[in-house]
Amino acid sequence: MQFVQNFPFFCILLTLMGAVASSVMSGRRARHTTLLLMAANLAFTVSVMIYTLMKRMIARGGFDRAELLEEIGGRLLQAEWDDKESGEYRSVYGDEAQALLAAVKEDFAAGAIGNHSLEKEESAGMRVCFVWSGLGGAGESLEIVVENGSTNTLACLAVLTAD
Known about the structure:
By secondary structure, the chain is an alpha+beta fold. The protein has helices at about 5-25, 25-60, 65-70, 95-110, 150-160, and strands at about 75-85, 90-95, 125-135, 140-145. The protein has a 4-stranded antiparallel beta sheet with strand order 2-1-3-4, with helices on one face. The longest helix is centred in the first third of the chain and has 33 residues, at about 25-60. About 15% of the residues are buried.
């Protein structure tokens, strides 16, 4: 368990201890103590929110960012991968890239793709990179590691490689 996951418990304890301590303090000192404890609770709450959002973003594998790009007018330009069998670097565009992205999303939803950790780990799988057009023409990318159990993605790559 991450330390930050204990912060809600600390907020409850701080509030309870602050209430007990404030009841025996003078009015001015109790007010300052309460404000200090409220600031500490706010800091704990904000750090938990940031942790939760980061964890959610990592657990989604970057697809939130891809969906946001599509919502604001970006479009998928291409998908690229290094074909280990032929030794060639391959790219597909348009509908083929969309089909590959759909296959990756299916495998991700099934749990066949995705390393859900904050630490960056090297994997022996094939890397597939999706590139979107962003605002002002700047390119945004999302890189996925395709493992051997990713049946939908590997089937789609086999079809695209056969062309």
